[in-house]
Amino acid sequence: MLSNSYKIEFIGGPCDGHLETSDCRPIHLAVDVVFLVCENALRLLNGTEPRPGRRVTSVALYELQYRNGTARYRFVGAIAGKDCLVSL
Length: 88
Hints:
Elements: E1 6-11, E2 19-22, E3 32-38, H1 39-45, E4 56-67, E5 70-80, H2 81-87
Parallel strand pairs: 1-5
Antiparallel strand pairs: 1-2, 3-4, 4-5
């Protein structure tokens, strides 16, 4: 790991417990992040090989927050995959 890298934890939702390494200073992180959720995304987070032909099941929204001076992303909600195009 680089000496200037940071661990960002994801709290709740489909990415709960995931730690992401970032070379970006926490002050420069995106305020909101959106993930397309599908079986392959979850498999990759768990270190498992993806499978072909998996559809997006939902979109998950995470919001940046600071707790005890540490940046982390907290799950705020999700939109079902079938409703995503309607929401755009």
